Amino acid sequence: MKRRAPSYSVSRVPHVLVAGALALFVSLFVPASLSGCQSGLDAPLPAASALDAPPKRGGILHLSSFGNIRGLDPANIADGLVSTLHQLLFAGLLDFDERGEVIPRLAERYETSQDGRSYRFFLRPGVLFHDGTELRADDVKRSIERALHPTAPNPFASFYAAIRGYDTFSKGKSEELAGVVVEGTYVVRIDLVEPDSTFLALFAMQVLRPVCKSGGRRYTDDFVPCGAGPFKLKEYVRGEQVTFARHEGYFEPGKPYLDGIVFTFGVNMSAARYKFQNGDLDTLRDLTAGDLLAFQSDPRWAPYGAYDRERQIMGEAMNTELPPFDNVEVRRAVVAAIDRSHYAKVKPATLRIANQPIPPGTPGFDPDLKGQEYDLPAALEHMKRAGYPYDPATKTGGYPHIIPYYTYRQGVSEYTAQVFQQEVAKIGIRLELRLVSYPTYLAQIGRRKKVPVGPWGWSEDYPDALDFLESLFHSKGIAEDDASNVSFYSSAELDRLVDDAKHELDPKRKKSLVSRAVEKILEDAPFAFAYSVRFYDIHQPYVRGVKAHPVWARNVSFVWLDRQKDARSAAFLRSPSPERTRGLASR
Questions:
Q1: What CATH architecture is 91-215?
Q2: Which of 15, 177, 362, 511 is deepest in the core (most CB within 10 A)?
């Protein structure tokens, strides 16, 4: 599961009126430029050539993040940031094109059996790993088994449970994954125990991408990243910086264009902005809300920024095993009591109103679905049906006990918690906000029969509505600890609909099953959907070939630089590669 936000110390949030909270948000996040002052932004640094100039080779792209990564092994994808780096290092048999559709990459083609239980992949001859060895079918099998073996800390391993033999292999009862079969030097077959409509999308993800023979047959902490992607590792200083150099043996002729890429960690947002404007960084993603609005409102910069698609959903998870949320009428009351426009005002440039379990950028989102709606009279009626009538005029009645609400500092939910507190107070539900450290928050909300209600959400793991429905609402997401279904919602009907949709290969029938599953979730209301999240990227005009990708964030594998003056590449090429990178251990 992808988890969000940093951890901070325990404290208590005071009771704050929505109007006052939103006024505070405006003062914190809205830049002076929107008040009639100059934005203070420098002009973009121009490109050297005309817009229709062909790509040219050379140059070093510089990127940064305030965050960090735990490691670079695709068998241990532990955070959202590392996928950008994996896309540079590792190429897959399949990938996603610019429309988000699955296409062959290291495979020339693939075949699917009529019953949907077998996939045969034909590799491109002559594909070279970074160490100069050729990719063969046995490398594919070895890499898949390495990533899915129980010794690998792979949080996504269970996504591939449909592969024949996974059950015994994942339990350590077999040293070989029976469903991955080498049929020839360049042919590998994957057999499933049952059809899986998500399999090709899952196989296009980065987890199972081939690694060099030096990666071994089993995961180890000291693996030096080596794959068949467009860039190879030059240096990794843990917690500081990772540097990539062009893979001269990459299978696509003439690509990549860049000599290399430098990615620096731990750069705060203000420093990143100044480095970007000076040309020391070439793209910018980590923006304060004020800086984001300043760049968007400046006509000189507006053409060089774009939003990623919205692929994260957030809201309020109500624990259906604990009172009062074990009562469906109370849950329906909460859903109807929320004015979602108040959430969006917390960070208006980033948060968007949401009222269904699928975010707008994920296949399966239905723009015509009515979804959850704000209706205060209906909310009060639901409270009455639940046995907790509330009179807004006298502020009497409602649920008689104060409900603890856990969240954490510095995340957006620290602010949306105050909004939620005021929304449900209108129907007689009183919350006590408790701010705890991020690890404590995760431990509490994921533990069975512990937290009545709290903020939760999901970021897309693979582009399919079933990722959200299965992770957030299927009963197999329930666990005593570390549950993904933190509403602890269990419905045999919902489970059946999701399972049937997963096994259904006909797109129309699958869509119908997904729609019925969404309707069931809306009816039972285990979750009050509140907002989706979108991220903004901006680049200097001399960074050419930039396109927002529907799956991969900051997909810079094939951009090229057209700077009027840049001495960085010569220095980069002169610098020797260290014999061994520092700090590769992923512990």
A1: Alpha-Beta Complex (3.90)
A2: 362
